[in-house]
Design brief:
By secondary structure, the protein is mostly beta strands. Helices cover about 0% and strands about 45% of the residues. It has a six-stranded mixed beta sheet, with no helix packed on it. Strand 5 and strand 6 form a beta hairpin. It is globular, with a radius of gyration of 13 Å.
Length: about 120
């Protein structure tokens, strides 16, 4: 169970866009529902978006609905988070993980990667 690698974060002005990538390192994601989480300083890690194992269904936190889009590549080796109209409150470290439930979005694996930093300036 190799840890996925997050990338694509950076510094962007409010209203800008970023695309984040969660890449498989040892296996594909085809058997797993996958999700993005984020953690801002002083706050708990929170759910952002999820996608069903074969990519047919997507789920979003209320705070990002209409602005973010989660998707998979056709080989199931990458999970992408398209982030539009970014706001300062989106500033956080973004992580990906498999999820055991598409109702609770509980992370499947206890180990988290280093994440990728997204910083949105006003």
């Amino acid at each position: 169970q190799a840890q996925p690698v997050e990338s694509g974060g950076g510094l962007v002005q409010a209203g800008g866009s970023l695309n984040l990538s969660c890449a498989a390192t040892g296996r594909t994601f085809n058997h797993y529902a996958m999700a993005w989480f984020r953690q801002a300083p002083g706050k708990e890690r929170e759910f952002v978006a999820a996608i069903s194992p074969w990519g047919q269904d997507t789920y979003y936190a209320d705070s990002v609905t209409g602005r973010f889009a989660i998707s998979k590549d056709v080989a199931h080796t990458e999970v992408i988070l398209q982030m539009n109209n970014l706001q300062p409150e989106d500033t956080a470290v973004y992580y990906c993980n498999a999820v055991a439930s598409l109702t609770t979005f509980a992370p499947l694996f206890d180990s988290w990667g280093q994440g990728t930093q997204v910083t949105v300036s006003a």
